[in-house]
Structures are given as C-alpha cells and as structure tokens.
Amino acid sequence: DVSHGPILYLEDVTVSFDGFRALNALSLSIDAGELRCMIGPNGAGKTTMMDVITGKTRAQSGKVFLGQTLDLRRLDEAAIARAGVGRKFQKPTVFEQHPVWENLELAMKSDKRWFAALRARLDAPAQARIEEVLETIRLEDAAYRLAGELSHGQKQRLEIGMLLMQQPQLLLLDEPAAGITDDETMELARLLNSLRGQCSMMVVEHDMDFVAALAGETGRVTVMAEGAVLAEGTLDQVKRDERVIESYLGR
Ligand code: ADP
After folding, report:
1. What InterPro entries does the entry give (predicted)?
2. Which neighbouring-strand residues pair with 197?
3. How far is the CA of 21 from the centre of ligand 1 (A)?
4. Nearest residue CA, atom 5 of ligand 1?
5. What are the structural domains of the chain?
6. What is the 58 CA–ligand 1 centroid distance (Å)?
C-alpha cells in the first residue's frame, strides 16, 4: 500500500515560450494513492504541466518534487521514468504486430528500450506478473490476439497495462477516454478506479461523464486556466464556481 503525504508537489512552476507564460506560478499537490482529475479549457497549460513533470520540458522556476525528496527538475526524462513516473499519451501506442501478452512482456523493460528488447527476446518472461496485469486490464481473453486487432478502448487499456508492468508510483494520463465508445469509457473508469491505492494518478480529461465516474462525489478535481490552478474541489463544487464557468465561456 502507498504511504501518506504528497506523491507529487509543484510550487510556483513557471514555463515561458518566447515570453508567453504557458505555466504561470502553478502550484499543486497530489496525495499518495489519490486519483486526481485535471480539467480546464484548451491552452490552460495541462499538457505543458505533464511535460514538466516528465522532464520533456524544463521549468524556468519553481519546485517539482516526487514524494518528499526527489527533485524532478534535476532529472532527465529517462531518470524520471525510472523513478516511477509513467505517462500515457492521448493516442494509444502499442506494438500492433505483436500479441497482447508480448506487449506486456516488452513493457517490463524500462527506458523505452522496447525495440531493442524485441530483438534480444527476454529470457525470463515473468508470467505471473503478466497474468496479473492481463486480469487487471481485463484482456485475459485477448492475450494472444495481435494488439493491432484490438478496439481503440482495448488498446488504451493495454497501454495502461504496459505502464503497470513497471509498477509506477505515479501515472499521468492525457485524455484516455478520447475517441472511445461509452461502454469502453465506463470500462476504463472501472480500471482506473481499481488502481486506487496501488499507484497515484493524474488524469487530464475533457469528457465530464468520465470525470464524474472517476471523481465520484468526494474526489478532488483541479481546474486549470492560464497556466495556473483556477479552482479545486469536488466536481460539484468546481462546476458551480463562477470563475470556472467564466473561464470556459470566455473562449
Ligand atoms: P492544454 O494542454 O491545457 O490545452 P498546453 O499546455 O498545450 O495547454 O498549452 C498552453 C499554452 O502554451 C498554449 O497557449 C500553447 O499554445 C502554448 N505552448 C505550448 N507548448 C508550446 C511550445 N512548445 N511553444 C510555444 N508555445 C507553446
């Protein structure tokens, strides 16, 4: 089980592109084991925030910490991934020509050296772990199908499974429900809810039904606008917040 205290801590994080502040003194903290939904209009800085956490973009100032002590601003992308931060982009990226179980096997190798692993072939497949993750992502029955034959929603779940193979501390998910059916969306919400306590998650999402399924009545939702946190609270609270309504309508 995960310990208490923040797993992710951002303080006054600023990122400028040619003088434009994509992140403007962003401060934010996520508790260990928490599933935090992040919403906000286009251009709010959500992607830039994830880029900063994963080391893809450098912050000009501020603090970015994993747990109490790990200063992520001092690490490069590979080291941040090794420290246990997994990221899922909007589009699923799986090895379409390979069976589902083999995608999971390959994902056990960190640093994205998957293609090298493809050639070398792992000698110890750690079947138990693969079985466990297959069950978690509910793809037991699809284990020997080619990943390319899966539905979009199944590919999203497979990719989350690939991240889970590395037993991450923190998962960052960028619009995982984009482009999948309603049924698949609810299946995905079930999957993410089942991961609570196993790892912490930050989910950037536009689909409000999906956010509602993840946050429930008590989960915290953070609203970003103009590179900073505009509001934070339950989904119900932030939806009624005048500033939030204005920030969406103002665009
Ligand atoms: P969101 O994900 O919330 O839609 P982004 O983080 O993608 O927001 O973008 C925040 C702002 O920063 C936008 O105005 C965007 O145009 C700008 N921006 C993002 N990346 C770059 C970049 N590499 N160069 C210049 N401007 C950028």
Report:
1. ABC_AA/LPS_Transport, ABC_transporter-like_ATP-bd, ABC_transporter-like_CS, ABC_transptr_urea_ATP-bd_UrtD, BCA_ABC_TP_C, P-loop_NTPase
2. none
3. 9
4. 45
5. 6-93+169-249 (3.40.50.300)
6. 13
